[in-house]
Amino acid sequence: MISVAVAVSLAASSNCPATDAKAELLSLHKKTRQAHLRGDAVSIAETIGDQLLMADNGTLRTQSKAEVAAFFTGYFRRVRYSAWRDASPPVVTISPDGRMAWMAVAVEAKYTSADKPAEGEKSFKSSWIATYARNDCVWRMTGIASDVVQ
Questions:
Q1: 3-state helix, strand and coil shares in percent for the chain, rounded to the nearest 5
Q2: For the segment 20-74, what is each residue's pLDDT rounded down to a tens digit?
Q3: What is the CATH number of the domain that holds 126?
Q4: pTM here?
Q5: What residue numbers bound the domain in which 124 lies?
Q6: 129: which residues sit within 8 A by CB, 6+ positions away?
Q7: Does pLDDT of 120 surpass 70?
């Protein structure tokens, strides 16, 4: 039974056109960067799988795509980004079967608080490692572990 499920899964993924997985993942990263600069929570949620496993502050938790969208909607009400750029090139690794991947990212960002613009621009550095799965020929983020340094 398990071998049948694996065979069906592999057959489904082989129906996907041959693509440059690294370029697709870097395109998702670019979409996320642009969404931060525009304050676009929907675009960020579109890059997430049905469930996102998050590791931060010593805990593990999951969020649905809708919960990710709700979080970023509230977050973008509070902050406006003027910069969100890679501090170094992202590192992308793809599984041999082309169905899973991970990306390590480091960014530098500048923002102002929407409710306290007089405090001026602030900056931070953040890094994370995110996991991705390719389902129905589309890459989606499935997990993330991150940190932020003010």
A1: 35, 45, 20
A2: 999 999 999 999 999 999 999 999 999 999 999 999 889 999 999 999 999 999 9
A3: 3.10.450.50
A4: 0.85
A5: 20-149
A6: 102, 103, 104, 105, 144, 145, 146
A7: yes
Residue 115: per-residue pLDDT: 87
Q: What angle do CA 74, 79, 81 make, to 5 degrees?
A: 130
Check whether 101 has a pLDDT greater than 80. yes
Residue 10 maps to a domain: no
Q: Is residue 60 domain-resident?
A: yes
Q: Which residues contact 137 (CB under 8 A, 6 or more apart)?
A: 13, 15, 16, 17
Separation of alpha carbons 28 and 102, rounded Å: 12
Query: What is the tally of structural domains in the chain?
Result: 1
